[in-house]
Write a structure and sequence with these properties.
Structural class: mainly alpha
Strand content: under 5%
Radius of gyration: 14 Å
Shape: elongated
Number of helices: 3
Distance between the termini: 45 Å
Helix content: 55-70%
Largest sheet: none
Number of strands: 0
Order of helices and strands: HHH
């Protein structure tokens, strides 16, 4: 039995979940919440999740690349300030 995963659905679902998680993290952190930055970071996460589905981009599924994309998403959402690691 073969399973079909659609890239657009992966993008939308992961983007929405990323956005909600980033909003929760911003509220828990107590810092300023810039919704545009959170949305841009969520779009980045959705694009990454959809791109990782393609066999030609299989290197995106390796742990160091996943951690680098996580760091990039957090930098997009919260910037590189002192309170970022909170």
């Amino acid at each position: 039995m073969e399973m079909t995963v659609y890239a657009d659905e992966a993008f939308l679902l992961n983007g929405a979940v990323d956005y909600l998680l980033l909003v929760c993290a911003a509220k828990l952190g107590g810092g300023r919440m810039l919704r545009l930055r959170l949305a841009l970071a969520a779009v980045f996460g959705g694009v990454y999740a959809a791109a990782a589905l393609f066999p030609a981009l299989a290197f995106l599924q390796q742990l160091p690349v996943k951690l680098a994309s996580l760091a990039a998403m957090l930098l997009i959402a919260f910037g590189a300030g002192r309170g970022t690691l909170r």
